[in-house]
């Protein structure tokens, strides 16, 4: 399919290549039928480690749901294996705080069916009845919580490069032997303008040979997924950096990575459609996009700090006391380490919290940042 499109239309912008590899119906990584998440897949997300992550998110967002009233909904972007939804719904049910609807925006028919089977097997029928799957974001105004874990990193990026001071854009072509190859072509006006704006903000031009990513559609994406959220909170958790750290001179080949069978590598042309392709998040750009969409940036903090402020110690104590044996207690301790240690997920992953239409903000004061912009 990729070769046919390149033959018909010429070299393919990397952004298009990444979109096809991840989302082409029936062929892309997230739309084909292979296992993606957990030990049998290609990577492990925080919800796959155990229950603590989801329980902390529910604890943090419960006041927002309560303040949003009986019509409050909880919208999860990209439900993955269904692990997060299972634990979140169980925790909400235990606290008698179920939302009106638990919405899962999941474009993959295969993943949607896996989620449906998992939730139906694990939860009471009356709880599962609140779950609705969406093909696209809600178009009507709604209230509640929008949550996404490791979603923004999978948005297709533009790859740019600097050669002799000029801006080039990475494309995917086909060589004489029919192999996919990466090439640089002179950038279009929009990409060049975006790169020059970055250089101006950073106070220095990029060096020759520097290569990195842009996410020009981020503002439009935020507006599309969250625009109708008239009152509530938006919590986005992902790996990445503030802009000045993202575009450090030493990060000369950007942040693009591929994942296959729990191995990270740097060749996005390897096994198209079978590798997960990701790029770290520019959280400064994410903050700008959220504020442009009418949200207030509440806080931006490392995942470890977010979880601690969201009740991780108490959640761990309760789970530890209920653990049936020493092996289960050991797994809980390992889960906390993976979620919070700096060299694990604790510092590599960041949480960004936005709010709109809630005055005063009902969440715990530990989650309200006095100066989140200072880190951005």
TrEMBL record:
GO terms for biological process: methylation. InterPro entries: NDUFAF7, NDUFAF7_sf, SAM-dependent_MTases_sf. Keywords: Methyltransferase, Transferase. One of its GO terms (molecular function) is protein-arginine omega-N symmetric methyltransferase activity. It comes from the Bacteria. It holds the Pfam family Methyltransf_28. This is SAM-dependent methyltransferase. It comes from Dyella thiooxydans.
């Amino acid at each position: 399919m990729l070769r046919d499109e390149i033959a018909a239309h010429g070299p393919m912008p990397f952004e298009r290549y990444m979109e096809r590899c991840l989302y082409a119906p029936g062929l892309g990584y997230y739309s084909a039928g292979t296992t993606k998440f957990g030990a049998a897949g290609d990577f492990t997300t925080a919800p796959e480690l155990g229950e603590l992550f989801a329980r902390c998110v529910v604890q943090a967002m419960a006041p927002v749901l309560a303040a949003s009233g009986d019509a409050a909904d909880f919208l999860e972007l990209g439900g993955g294996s269904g692990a997060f939804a299972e634990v979140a719904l169980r925790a909400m049910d235990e606290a008698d705080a179920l939302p009106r609807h638990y919405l899962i925006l999941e474009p993959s028919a295969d993943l949607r069916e896996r989620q449906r089977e998992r939730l139906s097997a694990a939860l009471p029928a009356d709880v599962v009845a609140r779950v609705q799957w969406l093909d696209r974001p809600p178009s009507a105004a709604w209230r509640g919580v929008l949550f996404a874990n490791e979603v923004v990193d999978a948005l297709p990026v533009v790859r740019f490069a600097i050669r002799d001071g000029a801006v080039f854009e990475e494309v995917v072509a086909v060589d004489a032997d029919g192999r996919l190859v990466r090439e640089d072509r002179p950038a279009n006006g929009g990409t060049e303008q975006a790169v020059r704006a970055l250089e101006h903000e950073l106070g220095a031009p990029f060096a020759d040979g520097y290569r990195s990513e842009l996410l020009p559609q981020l503002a439009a994406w935020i507006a599309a997924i969250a625009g109708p959220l008239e009152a509530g909170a938006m919590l986005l958790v992902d790996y990445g950096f503030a802009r000045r750290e993202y575009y450090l001179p030493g990060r000369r080949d950007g942040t693009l990575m591929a994942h296959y069978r729990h191995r990270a590598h740097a060749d996005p042309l390897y096994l198209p459609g079978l590798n997960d392709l990701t790029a770290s998040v520019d959280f400064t750009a994410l903050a700008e996009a959220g504020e442009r969409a009418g949200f207030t940036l509440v806080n931006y903090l490392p995942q470890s700090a977010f979880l601690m402020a969201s009740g991780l110690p108490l959640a761990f104590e309760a789970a530890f006391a209920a653990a049936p044996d020493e092996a289960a207690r050991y797994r809980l301790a390992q889960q906390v380490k993976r979620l919070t240690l700096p060299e694990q997920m604790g510092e590599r992953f960041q949480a960004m919290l936005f709010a709109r239409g809630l005055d005063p903000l009902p969440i715990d004061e530990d989650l309200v940042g006095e100066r989140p912009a200072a880190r951005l």
